[in-house]
Amino acid sequence: MSSPSEDPAGIDRTDPEAEIAARAEAYRNWGRWGEDDVLGTLNFIDSAKRVEAAALVREGAVVSLSQSFDTDGPQKGWRRRTNPVHTMTDTGVDAERGNQGFPHGIGGADDVIAMPLQCSTQWDGLGHIFDHGFAWNGRRAGDVVTSEGDLVTGIEHAASVIVSRGVLLDVARHLSPETGELPDGYAISAAELDACADAQGVTIGRGDIVLVRTGRLARARREGWGEYAGGPSAGLSLSTAGWLHRTEIAAIATDTWGFEVRPNEFDVPSFQPLHQVVIPNMGLTIGEMWDLDELAASCAARARWDFLLSAPPLPITGAVGSPINPVAIF
Questions:
Q1: Whose CB among 81, 248, 298, 313 lies 3.0–4.6 Å from 206's, allowing a Cys bridge?
Q2: In this structure, what CATH number is given to the domain that contains residue 308?
């Protein structure tokens, strides 16, 4: 049986079911780490990998890779995803008025935030996407995620795991050096990921966390959010599934809302086919809406594209995703 095509042009644009199924079967990792596994490809990050990553810290310079968490965000209410609402429950005004009930003049401020867990920079957990009713490692979706949350692969299991060697692939700068931005609908291929790595002089290895910059966030900052959340964007082609599998990377993140190219690569109805392959079948953790612009400038200035990356999720019990403030340390 031949392997699925790794050329975007080789995708049968009329048959998403067959194209997804072929890759799900070819790259399925069910049972690879045992029937009780809850981490998927995050298992590729071991102690030795973290020691290797720590050795990349030479200056102590830190770059945050997070977008803001505030009402000026890209969300428009799709599937009840809204921007964060930040509310003060105690303020300096209350302290000045002396109405907080504290003794000897002490005052304080408190606040609360309400937000979907995937409204800004975030990880998709392994309970986020299902394939024909199955979740990661071949479990029934309904046995994994219920109204009580993800009972098996909740994001809390990754809280002490996601620290590793990060590698930035600035595909936008590689393919469009004049603008540093890829056009909407551009499907990044496996060959282009490899070519970008070669041009930057960086290798991709087991346990790495790969960050792919498309320039989509840079354009949204310049022109306004527009259709950033859910609209057209460059992203990974479905045909990169084989690359994501054989490189044995631990996780991947992009500066886009959806990680994969949008519109998706079919002329008939489809929705996020690469998600359907890599999360429930491969066990790959995906990051979205990361801010990679300052990181790209920092990497280019140093002529080095790898760094220690710390990106733990909040240990929200039973969550299928988590907001994060990932940091790259040089």
A1: 248
A2: 3.50.30.50
